[in-house]
Write a structure and sequence with these properties.
Length: about 300
């Protein structure tokens, strides 16, 4: 009996720590709306898969905290009448996840490895950005990921460490990833450009044109189920979008059969924390979509 009591005590302590971590993370994201009526629910352990499995499911957790599972979702703002997107960007119909059938030719999976792609990049001098860089910053993470995040270009910390999203914006991105039930190492993280622009300015169209093909080859190699594009530069380059991020965010778009969710860049959230709540709404749609496809594939 004493052993059983100790085991129960350990489990309750672990659960309390888990909830505390989630609450801290969600507070950092500016989320403070929780429905106290719902209790913490155990997750279905049969859904737990490991990152090396190509059909990777939502990362295993014994419990999911009420702070994550019961947040009251604010309704998404309705699009303004007469608003239209660029030709290559398909607005999702008014359904939970949009049109699940691909509206453009499906992306063909390639057998290229990242190492082969990076070998083609080499010690790149294709655009002027090479003159001021310290390191080329390649895409990082699980190469069988279901979820990918794409930003615009490295900053000073990323240039120094040769890793994407490791500065303040990267720390916030890590918390966002954890808030939707993933670990950073279970997703894929990259940028349109791999060299730091001077003064952290956005890459020019010419600079992006030189670098983007390598990112597209990585996407074809991995074929994630969902891509989150963060900020105007990433959205414009992946989707050829003419509309700004404030008009496109929150609605799934299509990239050759891959669902794409445009949302604000973490660096922008640091400058304007009021946008964190909208970003959380966008990421909840991504989480819910991945949970739905995980169930349908199980």
């Amino acid at each position: 009996m004493e052993m059983q009591n100790q085991q129960l005590s350990d489990e309750l302590l672990a659960l309390a720590n888990d909830i505390r971590e989630h609450l801290s993370c969600l507070h950092e994201l500016g989320i403070d709306s929780v429905d106290p009526a719902n209790a913490t629910q155990p997750l279905d352990e049969s859904r737990a898969m490991y990152p090396e499995d190509i059909n990777q499911k939502i990362p295993p957790r014994r419990y999911q905290s009420a702070a994550v599972s019961t947040l009251a979702a604010a309704p998404a703002p309705a699009p303004k009448p007469g608003t239209s997107s660029a030709k290559t960007v398909q607005r999702a119909p008014n359904t939970l996840f949009g049109e699940l059938t691909a509206t453009s030719p499906k992306l063909e999976k390639t057998t290229e490895t990242f190492e082969e792609i990076w070998a083609d990049i080499g010690d790149c001098t294709r655009c002027p950005l090479y003159q001021g860089r310290t390191n080329i910053v390649h895409t990082e993470g699980n190469r069988r990921a279901r979820l990918m995040f794409i930003g615009e270009a490295p900053g000073a910390d990323e240039d120094a460490q040769a890793r994407p999203f490791v500065g303040r914006a990267g720390q916030l991105l890590t918390k966002i990833i954890e808030a939707i039930g993933f670990k950073r190492e279970e997703v894929l993280i990259g940028n349109v450009n791999r060299c730091r622009p001077p003064g952290n300015r956005p890459p020019t169209e010419e600079e992006a044109t030189m670098c983007k093909p390598f990112l597209l080859r990585e996407i074809a190699s991995v074929q994630p189920e969902v891509i989150v594009v963060m900020g105007n530069t990433a959205t414009r380059n992946l989707l050829n979008a003419k509309l700004g991020i404030t008009k496109l965010r929150g609605e799934f778009q299509d990239y050759h059969g891959v669902k794409v969710m445009p949302t604000f860049h973490p660096a922008y959230l640091l400058r304007d924390p009021s946008k964190k709540q909208e970003t959380w709404q966008d990421l909840k749609k991504v989480r819910d979509y991945l949970e739905t496809t995980a169930k349908s594939n199980s």
